[in-house]
Amino acid sequence: MSGNASPRLTVSALTVAFGGLTALKNVSFTVEADETVALIGPNGAGKTTVFNAVCSLVRPKSGSISINGRPAPDSTSALLEQGVSRTLQGLGLFSGLTVLENVLVPLTSLRQRTAAAQTAAAMLERLSLGSYAQAPVDSLPYAMRKRVALARALVTNPSLLLLDEPAGGLSREDISDLADLVRSLRTQGNAVLLVEHHVDFVMEVADRVVVLDFGEVVAIGTPDEVRSDPAVEAAYLGLEAA
Q1: Are residues 174 and 149 in the same domain?
Q2: Among candidates 104, 91, 86, which has minimal Cα distance to 141?
Q3: Which residue positions does the secretion signal occupy (predicted)?
Q4: How far apart, in whole angstroms, are the C-alpha atoms of residue 149 and residue 188?
Q5: 48/39 Cα distance (integer angstroms)
Q6: Separation of alpha carbons 141 and 118, rounded Å
Q7: In whole angstroms, what is the distance from residue 222 CA to residue 58 CA?
Q8: Which of 157, 189, 205 is the last residue of a domain?
């Protein structure tokens, strides 16, 4: 981990309510530099709400969120400047643009055009997409479009990367390649928070796992600790509690 440095992400006693429904209740966890933390739980457990709160898309009723030791920004436009990037379940790619043009989108306000193009091209090479730079993004198969979305999220060199269902819809081979990439991010000092239903993938790449149920943290620990928790086994891993 990162010694005395502030965590890349600190979520403290976070409570979010929508009308009379409490979506999150007193949720607390951290993500350190060079650490991958996974959020798991059934549909409706609050995983995406955590992401949306970090990205300032929903306002907490109480609690706090800090990024790199500073309060999370009040607007999504300030997230890039604070070093946060996110993928979306729906990919969010721009139809009609090329692969390179899609990856360039978050760089247009951060770098001069020539430097941005060089950075984007290097990221495409890193993710084995270099030969598709000028291809219309809509012409690529789904697994490759997911890789384009990941390249776009990584191209700003975020200090905190949020991955929303990155393994969804991928083949076993593609998931294995994705696991290798996520592990490489950790060795480069990146912090990753991911939401994922693919439990085997989570257990392979996560340093710690946060388990949510009905908006509350019911377990937090290493993959082995979470895997051996009888309540988690029964509720989330499809096993019978002893």
Answers
A1: no
A2: 91
A3: none
A4: 20
A5: 9
A6: 25
A7: 29
A8: 157
Query: What is the residue range of 178's domain?
Result: 1-83+159-242
pLDDT tens per residue across span 114-172: 678 888 899 999 888 999 999 999 999 988 998 999 999 988 888 899 998 888 888 88
Please give the Cα distance from 135 to 226 (Å, whole number).
43
Please, how many CA atoms are within 13 Å of residue 162, restricted to the half-sphere of its CB?
23
pLDDT digits (tens, 9 = 90+) for 21-75: 999 999 999 999 889 999 998 888 889 899 889 988 888 999 999 998 888 887 7
* Same domain as 18, residue 134: no
Amino acid type, 104: L
Tell me how far apart the alpha carbons of residues 55 and 79 are, in angstroms, rounded to a whole number. 7
